[in-house]
Amino acid sequence: MFTEAEHFFSLSCMAYVLTGVFVAAVRWFHTCLPYGSETGYYHPARRLITATFLSAVVVLPYVLRPSDAGAWTFAKSFFLFADLYYCAVLLFTYFGSIKHWTPWRRVAWTLAAVFGVPLAGLCVATLAGVPLSTAQCATIMRCAVAGGVAATAFCLWAIGKISLWIKEIIEDNYSNPDDFPVRYARWIVLAPLLHIVPIWAVVLLDSQAMMATMQWMLVVFNVVFLISILHTQRSGATAHADCRTGEQPAAGGACAPAQPSGIEGFHQAGDPAASSTATVDNDNDAGQGISQERVAELKRELVALVEGQQLFLKPHLTMAEVAGLCTYGRTYVSHVFKSELGGFFNYVNHLRLRHASDYQAQHPMATRDEIATASGFTSRQAYYNARRRLTRE
Questions:
Q1: Does the pTM of the predicted model rise above 0.90?
Q2: CA–CA separation, 83 and 53 (whole Å)
Q3: Which pLDDT value is given to residue 232?
Q4: Residue 270 has pLDDT above 80, yes or no
Q5: By 3-state DSSP, what share of the chain in percent is helix, strand and coil, each rounded to 5?
Q6: How far apart are the first and last CA of the chain?
Q7: CA angle in degrees (0–180, nearest 5) for 40-91-55
Q8: For the domain bounded by 4-237, which CATH number is listed?
Q9: Which residues, other chains included, contact 159 with Cβ-Cβ below 8 Å and sequence gap of 6+?
Q10: In CATH, what is the architecture of 256-392?
């Protein structure tokens, strides 16, 4: 029979398991229309989120036997490594796919091999009810602490990396802010911190009461998280839904070869070391300044590309993409956009707004949606957002 405290510990863990299964089921079976046909773009972490929250069922032995030393040891080990590991992997899977940045996967696979495989073995033993001695539990916890340190470092790396990406967005590297959900990123990047502190408190204090408290916190977090992911955070992705062959719409609406974007775009197009196109400068020259003659030359080149060739009509145009078409490096391109053209976002969207006015004058019967998409905006809402932002500034 359970004691009153054990009933509470079991109930707390069961609540955590049930909300985890519920989140997994909703995430897998529910996608808002019209995003269901393009889940890879709109919900890039859908499969992993489902698997992550469904994995909560492995702590069922602790629900059934909260007084068992082996079940308690596994529960601590699971949260210490797996929970923090999942936090980092989820962050990188979602935001890394948006940025086309994949080096984190090598770290993830290494940690999974070194710590995840032994944890899986312990999971099987716990589910089978294999008894563990006090000495065995102590040894397992020492290994779990090592895995927890590694998972915590992985988590903090993910937080730091995504924080840099947020800063990059703020510095106007995108013409369409919906391509990287900044507000969502600012909120979700703090989520691992809500896991790290209580999990380490549970392990260091070896407290089942603290474990129960943490699990109720995670129940609330799971519900809030589910609400936040029910609708896609990438609302301006019409172009990706239209082109399924690695291409994206050109100004006229037909699919044109996709240009690299984000971090990948920088390495493939904006960085001279990664491009076959000869460039004059690179980011290492940033501290040496740039002459006014070169500023004027680069300004003319940028205007000819973005305005003359109407690159601004590409809904998902990035500064890295423009830099890849220039004879100067990305740092100089960024400098000229900011100092001479008012910033990449402002310049591109000023052109779009001007084009929208011209288009409306030429097509008085056109709808707002038609005007917006014909002018390079991903949607009518993106048009209104850009107009508000530029008017405010």
A1: no
A2: 10
A3: 62
A4: no
A5: 75, 0, 25
A6: 67
A7: 85
A8: 1.20.1070
A9: 91, 189, 190, 192, 193
A10: Orthogonal Bundle (1.10)
Cα–Cα separations (whole angstroms), residue 87 to 15, 108, 140: 20, 11, 22
Three-class secondary structure assignment of 81-104: HHHHHHHHHHHHHHHHHHHCCCCH
pLDDT digits 0-9 by tens, 293-343: 888 999 999 999 999 999 999 998 988 889 889 888 888 888 899 889 988
Counting Cα atoms < 13 Å in the Cβ hemisphere of 77 gives: 28
Note the pLDDT of residue 193: 85
Query: What is the SS3 assignment for 159-204?
Result: HHHHHHHHHHHHCCCECCHHHCCHHHHHHHCCHHHHHHHHHHHHHH
Strand partners, 318: 174
Domain ranges of the chain: 4-237, 256-392
65 three-class SS = coil
Hey, what are 46's tokens?
Answer: 């859908």
Beta bridge partners of 388: none
CB 270 within 8 A of CB 261: no
The answer to whether 388 touches 361, Cβ cutoff 8 Å, is no
